[in-house]
Inverse folding.
């Protein structure tokens, strides 16, 4: 039995998912809101602070 190439598998899966998403009753996720943006910016600031502290040798 001949195995399918990764390219064929990707094309088949992509076609399957596009067909599913084209249905009228497909439940798309809600768009991001202000709370989501505030949380992402907050997490970004925390990550930057932690990186700077690591670079300064405060935390290891």
């Amino acid at each position: 039995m001949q195995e399918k190439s990764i390219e064929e598998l990707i094309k088949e899966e992509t076609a399957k998912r596009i067909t599913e998403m084209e249905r009228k009753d497909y439940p798309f996720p809600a768009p991001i809101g202000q709370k989501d943006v505030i949380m992402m910016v907050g997490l970004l600031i925390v990550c930057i602070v932690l990186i700077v502290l690591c670079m300064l040798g405060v935390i290891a």
Summary: The mean pLDDT is 94. The radius of gyration is 22 Å.
